[in-house]
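Make up an example, fold above all:
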Amino acid sequence: MAGRHRRPQNLPVGVVGDDAQVTQVEATVSEKADGAVVLTRYDSRDDAVTAIEQRESYGAIVLGPSSTPEVLTASAANPTVAQMLDELGQGMQAAIDEQIRAAVESQIAAAQQEAAARVQSLVEAVRSGQVPQIPESGPSAPVQIPAVTVTVTDIVPFAASDPRGAGLGVALFPLVLGGLAVGIVSTLVVRGSAVRRVTTVVVASVGAGLVLAGILQAAFGALQGSFWLNAAACAATIAAIAATVTGFAGLLGPAGVGVGAVFTMLIANPLSAAAVPVEFLLQPWGAIGQWLPPGAAATLLRSLSYFPDAATAQQWIVLLVWAAGGLALTLVDLPARRLRAGQSVAEHPLTV
């Protein structure tokens, strides 16, 4: 099935460091990640943070000669990817600890060899009848044990009202159901001209958007940021889904309601990537899902809530185009045109 998950591919992650460090990280990621991560090099930590805040990267690995290693994550982008990066940080810490242990053991071995050489020289002097030259005692060089700790920093965490992101993860479901309900009611209950159905979709979408945004943001804390922007996104989502249903009905009659509902629930919704990164879906289905109303809505709501610097033009355009296109097809109203042309219901059984 198109929406079935597989191993992630090409998750964008940043890396900061000199040429040697970046080359080493690239080799390690290529060996262990098996295509799950694609690295993008940034000049500084600030550049990597900006990329994360603009949703161009899920996180970053920051290295440098004058700073301790750091792994940047964004749990609000996706907790699963943030956990992957946190595990990467633990792996880096383990590798560093192993290098430190090897270096300390090397220093101890060198000190032991030096002491053994001194003792041997004393023994040989005694055996040859010479007066052994006992070296002046002095403070021995301490074994150097460097302390290097990999820091993991969550750049964009979830809000305290939704610490695990559970509310945001399920926020799309009531919007999809609301859009389907508006579309079905507008088609099967509202009688009269297609203009009345279009008006019903627009008015009901605006009202439902305000109500659902209020519930999701004020009552459950699932949405963050501007209430009015979130309400507009909810209204646009409901309108796009409802217009899909009424648009199919404008072409097919009552059968269009079922086509619109099946398309939304069984095709568009599974491809929305509301709970998983787009990169977790089979390609090109993950990319296609972002051009359907549920996928655009899921990305838009997450960006409005936690990534205000991210570009959202594509998501707004997708929702508005689906809404406008669906309403235009609603106005076409082929069933009514056939009846006005004198064609009987018997000739078109699905026409009302």
